[in-house]
TrEMBL record:
Listed InterPro entries: AB_hydrolase_fold, BAAT_C
Alphabetized Pfam families for the sequence: BAAT_C
Domain of life, source organism: Eukaryota
Source organism of the structure: Saimiri boliviensis boliviensis
Gene Ontology terms, MF aspect: fatty acyl-CoA hydrolase activity
Database matches in SUPFAM superfamilies: alpha/beta-Hydrolases
The protein's name: BAAT/Acyl-CoA thioester hydrolase C-terminal domain-containing protein
Residue span(s) of domain BAAT/Acyl-CoA thioester hydrolase C-terminal: 1-197
GO BP, one annotated term: fatty acid metabolic process
Length: 207
């Protein structure tokens, strides 16, 4: 990435959503040159499949498909399928984010019906501080679901999951979710400008 003509350098910022969030946490923990990471409704543990890096394997967070719930509309809710990352049998799946070089910003939708995103962000915060690291920035948006996109994208309350192949409930209320997308976009820009460009104040995009 640092050799890509569109990458300014000398460092890299990462932004990940959902499963992409825990992938970004892993990249920030194990790779050099990453100085800012944004996670949108992601987990603090490795999920869905084992993560292989060099001679190390991080197992996936234990899940129980028997706990899948079905809404009256026939959509699936996976919220309760994910076990607690703090349980002893899940400790190996926790991502050692305390090894990361730079700060974190966690964007949390408080009506996320796919992940326990606020709980995961708090675990991350407590883990970082327990290792003497800076407390991460956590921004929680009431009435906001799982799929937080750039401003003016329509709310996606239900979508067919690319991996699972089923219609999954994401949550979110139209007005609150739309406002959250506008604010989150500005918060993300400010975070990256500060930690990648060293600018404390920026001219926000009008998008």
């Amino acid at each position: 990435m640092l050799h890509h003509p569109k990458v300014k350098g000398p460092s890299i910022g990462l932004l990940g959503f959902s499963k992409g969030g825990d992938l970004c946490l892993s990249m920030a923990s194990f790779l050099k040159g990453i100085t800012a990471t944004v996670v949108i409704n992601g987990c603090v543990a490795n999920t869905i499949a084992p993560l292989h890096y060099r001679d190390m394997i991080i197992p996936q967070l234990v899940s129980d498909t028997g706990k899948i719930k079905k809404t009256k509309s026939g959509f699936f809710n996976f919220m309760d399928t994910w076990s607690n990352p703090l349980e002893e049998y899940n400790h190996q799946s926790l991502i050692p984010l305390e090894k990361a070089q730079g700060p974190f910003l966690f964007i949390v939708g408080m009506d996320d019906q796919s992940w326990k995103s606020e709980f995961y962000a708090q675990i991350a915060s407590e883990r970082l501080q327990a290792h003497g690291k800076e407390r991460p920035q956590i921004i929680c948006y009431p009435g906001t679901g799982h799929s937080i996109n750039p401003p003016y994208f329509p709310l996606s309350r239900v979508s067919v999951h690319a991996v699972l192949g089923e219609a999954i409930v994401y949550g979110g209320e139209p007005k609150a979710h739309s406002k959250a997308q506008v604010d989150a976009w500005q918060q993300i820009q400010t975070f990256f400008h500060k930690h990648l460009n060293g600018k404390k104040s920026v001219k926000h995009s009008k998008m």
